[in-house]
Amino acid sequence: MFKTVEDNIQDFIKARYGMFIHYGLYSSLGRGEWVMNKELIYPDDYRKLANDFNPENFDADKICSLAKKAGMKYICPTTMHHDGFMLYDSDLSDFNSVKYCGRDLIRELIDATRKHGLRVHLYHSLNNWSASPDAVAALENKKDYDVFIENTFARFKELVTKYSPIDVLWYDGWWPFDKKGWQAKKMNKIIREIQPWIIFNGRNGLDGDFGTPEGHISAPEPWRPWEACITHNDNWSYVPCDDQWKSSYQLITMLLTVAKGNGNLMLNVGPKADGSIPEEAEKILLETGEWLNNNHEAVFDTDIFNFNLEKRGDKRADWSHTCVYSASGNNLYLTIKFWPGSELVITGLETAPEKVSMLADGVQYEFDYNPENGKLVIKGLPEESPGLRPVLKVECTSPPSIYRCGGMRTPNAAHPPYDPCPSDLQWS
Q1: What is the pTM of this model?
Q2: Count of CB atoms situated within 10 Å of the CB of 424
Q3: Which residue in 32, 302, 331, 405 has the fewest CB atoms around it within 10 Å?
């Protein structure tokens, strides 16, 4: 267990890949985790769903085993989403899984994560649509606000006390208050008095110990620890007709993107109403895990290796049609997107290569390198791709650096790497 917050943060940075799990009463309706709000299902009617809550196929050991085989290092389940239904035993509310199905699903998951050597991250909403008074009443009336905030603090204190030790407390649902309204400094202080090593995201109004870009993968500038939160299909919770699964090819691309920015990918899975993981999600996660098992060097313990379209600064990477770059120490990794045939060419490599090999099997390949233009030609590759997203490891004499620009040679005058106009990529 961590002795300090800093130790915990460093372990979080190295984790790289985790599983987000959205599961609750909303899973039985199959219309998204916001269904109570979006369809205006009032608390008394929503509570009736709990009578039929039956997670008969919710298998914590199987979920954590899947995460482990997928190459993940942590689990983050929704202990309570905005609807207020708790997946754990609570003394503060009987609107919980133990009351309605006799199972503490969070306890089961935590026990399984520890068995499988995974980090424990817990999501818990600040909001609570089933509470009385709720956040709307708290916004309108000071007396109701005091009761609502007191109840919110009590929930978090109970959670981190009951399930100690945990690594991360993941806030969400901060409508309608800012950090002052949530009394965020006091909130974090009280929780750290219970678990001094715990780290927080920034969704109670404070910056938190790490950033949480949602639905996109963007390393913060200036850099700080971060975690991209991405759905595996197009919904957080189970929606039966949503078959828009991101393929193993896409998941590998996302993992390489977070690796280049020294961040984490928290990929969401929404179990079915009975608690089972959708078959297609499981299949794709296992495919990705097999790739990671053979090519983990290209993703884990990597250095920041990004680039800037307008100015170079201290950036030392570039982009390619053929491959995705990542780096660690003196090693450059070329994860092939589109297999080029028997030769692969990259240019602008400013560091001399010493050895080129296939990361999965160690087979070495001949190469030519021109230090004047940084052109590296790797020869004798198979005509056909040897498998899903193969990775070539280029061992260099020093930390690798790649520089190309929008011209056919690097100008001797000051210049932007590519287009000098502000990028429109932020709007895409």
Answers
A1: 0.94
A2: 8
A3: 405
